[in-house]
Every structure is written in C-alpha cells, then in structure tokens.
Structures
1.
Amino acid sequence: MRILVLGGTVFLGRAVARQALAAGHDVTCAARGTSGDPVDGATFVTVDREEAGGLGAVEGTFDAVVDVARKPSHVRHMVAELAGRAGHVTFVSSCSAYADAVTPDQTSETAPLLPPADPANEDPAAGAEEYGRCKVTCEELVREGFGEVLVNRAGLIVGPEDPTGRFDYWVARHARGGEILAPGDPDERVQYVDVRDLADWILRCAEEGRTGTYDGMGAPMTRREFHAGLQAGTGGTGTLTWVPQDFLTGHAVVPWSGARSLPLWLPLPEYGGFLTRDVTRSLAAGLQPRPLPETAAATLAAFSDTRHITGLTEEEEVELLREWHAR
Ligand SMILES: NC(=O)c1ccc[n+]([C@@H]2O[C@H](COP(=O)([O-])OP(=O)(O)OC[C@H]3O[C@@H](n4cnc5c(N)ncnc54)[C@H](OP(=O)(O)O)[C@@H]3O)[C@@H](O)[C@H]2O)c1
C-alpha cells in the first residue's frame, strides 16, 4: 500500500511509519521536520499545514492516510487538499474528546463528547478541555470530508520515544529501586496503550479497511498490577509505599504530569472515568496489547542521556516519604 503519515516525525507517527515500512508498504511522512526526524526508509516531504495549500508538496494518491493533527485548521486544509486522493483515512483523536471524566467504564459507543471548539478560538494548546474540543472538531471535519473513516481515540500512549516523560518516570523509578512512593490505592485502576501496539492496530485497520470509532487503549489494570509489571520489566527490586491521595493533595503533589507530580496519578472521584474505559470493542476489533513487562523493558532500553522525565525529584520523594512515615 502507499501510505501517507501526516506527522511521522515523533512518537506515534514514527511508530506507524516504522511498522508500515516493516510490513512492506511504501511510506511517505509529511511534516515541517522541526519536531524530530522521520524513520529511515520513509519518504519525507516538508510541509507546513498552517497555510491553506501547505500540503502542496504531497503528490499523488494514497491507499491510506493517517493524521495525528490537533488543530482544526490543519485538518480543514488536509480535507481540501487530499480530496479524491485518499483511500482509507485514520484520524488519531484522543480520549480527551470525552465530556465525562468522572464515570468509570464508559464505552466509545455511548460516552458523551465535549462540544466542538469555539470556531473563533480553536487552540488545542489552550488547555486540556480546549485540546479535547479541538479533537472533536477535527473528528467532525474528517468525517465530513471523507465519509467512512477510522477515528482512533487514543488514551495514554506509552513506550519507547514517548516525549512526555510520564510513563518513563515510573520505569526509571522502578529501575532505581529503594523505597518507591506509590500514589493512591493499589486497587485503583490505570490504563494505557503501548505506542507499538497502537501503531500496529492502526496499520492493520488501514490494511483491512476498517472504519468506525474506537478507543485506542488497552484494558484497565489495578495500580498493584501496574507496579508489578514495571518491576518485572525493569528488574527493579524496590519496595512500594502506598500513600493515599489525601496526603498527596495535602502536600502539594501534582497529579498526572509536570513538576512535583506523580505521573499517571489522578484524584478520585473527579477523574474516575479517565483511566477506566471499557475497551472491549477495541480488543474485539484487533487491538493486541503486549504484556506490561515488555513495554517497561523496551522503554528502559530506549532511554537516552537526553530523555525527558517528568515527576517528583528524588529529593522530593524522599522528603514526602519521611513526612508520611512521621505523620
Ligand atoms: N501522548 C499521549 O499520551 C496521547 C494521548 C491521547 C491522544 N494522543 C494523540 O496521539 C497523537 C500522537 O501523535 P505523535 O506521537 O505523532 O505526536 P504529535 O506531537 O501529535 O505529532 C504532531 C506531528 O505533526 C507535525 N506537525 C506539527 N505542526 C505541523 C505543521 N504546522 N505542519 C505540518 N506538520 C506539523 C509534527 O512534526 P513537525 O513539528 O516536525 O512539523 C509531528 O510529526 C496525537 O494525535 C495526539 O493528540 C496522544
């Protein structure tokens, strides 16, 4: 197949391109080339989707197109410029498109969506809700433009080359060992997808011509299972100290990501719907999540000196554990 990856210079786009090449496809990646490099073997076309006509250098027809855009304007331009030239179309959306962050076990078929972005202010970088609303607009534009498409609402994507450093925090933390501050309750759930499994599924959906809307995430697991998988994959020998959320919020620990955060930790019940999606349909449609120890081991093996890791510093963790034991 002739496959166009709109993006393809970072993380998921690179993984899709790499797997498509390995499967013997002819792969073109189109981006500005400022965020990273395309994988070896792909044809790279320099484009800037900020401007109408910005995809002018992308020539010919494609059996499959995969787009990871966040900005509705980029999708508007793409729909106009690839009209009549795209076979199967995949739009990579996000579970951030959903409106209800609280209710556990929602499915892609019934979960309510955020409203589309305000046409006067379509800025996916303006915050989590704006990002989700922009993805809703992008989905609508792709469906209007191409009809039957695949919308893959990705959840937390992890694995080698993840630029966010969230999952990497936990891989690095387990690899280091010692006493590990584990947030929340061991029976709470966490959910993610290995970038290689998501890329593989996106590619197979394109090959099979599958359309529809799916969540791109594996089944939830408990935090206990999550840490056990990390330990197995990294060979770490650390011991977990579970610290409940009241203590964490009372000590200014930040959820999810960023400075002084415990990555992938989200307060409950307000984020009870976020890492607990029912993905039965996705698994039935071909998503094949690999075991967590494999993801953890590959992530660790891909660490480089310049890797970005978000989360607590070692000193912050030690101090929090000291205060927890002294309470
Ligand atoms: N990471 C997660 O946990 C997560 C969770 C849910 C959903 N998602 C979604 O999953 C996808 C991840 O995609 P990704 O890993 O490939 O990363 P990404 O950061 O979304 O990639 C954006 C791509 O678009 C290109 N691009 C940006 N601005 C451009 C412009 N003006 N013109 C042309 N190309 C442009 C970038 O390359 P250049 O900068 O070189 O142009 C890059 O290749 C996204 O759709 C994201 O919203 C991610």
2.
Amino acid sequence: MAQSTNKQVIVISGGSRGLGRGIAEQLMASGHAVATFSRSKTDFVETAQAANPDNFFWAPLDITDAEALKLFVNQVYQKFGRIDGLVNNAGATLDALLPITTDEEMERTLALNLTSSMRLSRLVSRVMLRQQSGSIINISSVLGVRGFKGVSVYGATKAALDGFSRSLARELGSKKIRVNSIAPGFLATDMTHGMAQARKEQIERRTPLGRLGEVEDVAGVVEFMLSDAARFVTGQTIVIDGGLTC
Ligand SMILES: NC(=O)c1ccc[n+]([C@@H]2O[C@H](COP(=O)([O-])OP(=O)(O)OC[C@H]3O[C@@H](n4cnc5c(N)ncnc54)[C@H](OP(=O)(O)O)[C@@H]3O)[C@@H](O)[C@H]2O)c1
C-alpha cells in the first residue's frame, strides 16, 4: 500500500457506497484520513471503522438536515484538528420528464444535490479559511454540461454546482483554497443500475473509449485534484467521460 508522506484529512459526503466509497478507499490507501456520512451504514463502513479507526470517521445523517451537518463538521474537527479537502459527492438522479415532475421531486433534488453541498461547503470553508488552505471538489455530471432528455432538473442542479465552483474559486483563491468541479460520465454504480441495457449500449457506442466509466476512473482524478500537484488548478470543471461529450 502506497503511504503518502503528506497525510490529508478529507471530508466526503455520501462515502458509504458508489463513487464516494471508491474515493474514500483510494484516499485511505494513499494514507489519508477520511470523514464521511450517509443515511445508512454499509458493510464497507463497518469494515473501515474496524480496520482504520484513527483514519476513518463515519456518522449516520441526512445531508438535508442542516443541524446534523453542522454537528458532523464539528465532530470531524474535534477528531482530526483540521480539514484539508471536501468532496461534495452525495447526490441522487431524477429521471423524469419535466411536465410530469412534481414540486416535491424538484425540491428534494435541489435540496440534496445543490443546497446541501453549498451548506457543507460553507461550513468546511470556515475551517479552511482559518488554515489558509484547502481544496473543495464538487461532483457534478456530464448531464450538467450537455443536455439529455428526461434529466432537466438533475442537469440543472449539476450545472449550478459548476457555476458555484467557479465563483467560489474566485472568492476563496486569495486564501489558497481551490474549488473545482469533477463531471463524471455514466458510471457503473447503484445510480445507473436500473438503466435499460439498450441505453447503456447506446452510451458505449457514443463513447470514444467504448465503455461506461468505473468508480476508479474518477477516484484517481479526485485524488490528483486534492493534491499539491494540482495547486494551480481552480475554478474548473474536469469532465471524465471517456470522450462522450467531446
Ligand atoms: N453514477 C453515475 O453514473 C454518475 C454520473 C455522474 C455523476 N454522478 C454523481 O456522483 C455522485 C455519486 O453518485 P453514485 O453513483 O456513487 O451514487 P450512489 O451509488 O447512489 O451513492 C450515493 C451516496 O450518497 C449517499 N446519500 C444519498 N442521499 C443522501 C442523503 N440525503 N444524505 C446523506 N447521504 C446521502 C448514499 O448513502 P445513503 O443512501 O445511505 O444515504 C451513498 O453513500 C452523485 O452526486 C451523482 O450525481 C454519478
């Protein structure tokens, strides 16, 4: 296992499964500490808690609960004494044509994908401002970069996250805090599990690299963007989609 000489403390929202889990595993394998939360506990969380209690922290919470989020950030700071990176990863798709989308669905998607990430960024940026350093990564999507039928509300939340990254990068740059978006293409996770086989094959045909993405394809870029190697990169949206949108 490659151990980093420069251990970082990274907060990841929704690190119990899917992409968040993959990012957590990659960062811990490099010797970093990870603090994460989700509504339900998974076997991965159970194992990481037992195997790596000094470098892994998990709390059960719903990201749309503002008080619980505040308590979580305080707990992370108490445990680790600093926060070097934040990955706003928790999110959910809304696959629905707009004319039949309900207010409740719209509001839930905005609260989960957008408002809660902005709120968590606000909490963590206060810690980073005291440290005068940090890196924030917003996980957006190719659906925020290009239009696709049936995902207008989801796509709007992801495009908004990209805009959030750009302006926040300008706001925090002088304090050596970087803010970027990472926009994955279609990944093989629970989120795309229910997608029709014909749709998956269509995406593969339209992708120059000829396949759906894997969590590992994205996790490595997240690690790079959190690292000092990316110290002059801020306010950008990095698309990782095998060329689907090129
Ligand atoms: N999969 C793709 O093809 C794809 C493509 C582009 C972008 N993305 C983006 O990548 C991110 C991760 O997607 P994924 O595919 O890994 O999703 P996933 O497999 O469904 O995992 C989502 C994670 O977020 C947590 N989460 C969901 N709702 C939450 C809530 N209200 N409060 C706290 N935690 C919550 C989940 O845990 P609990 O359910 O237990 O709370 C889980 O840990 C999302 O922002 C997504 O939009 C995904």
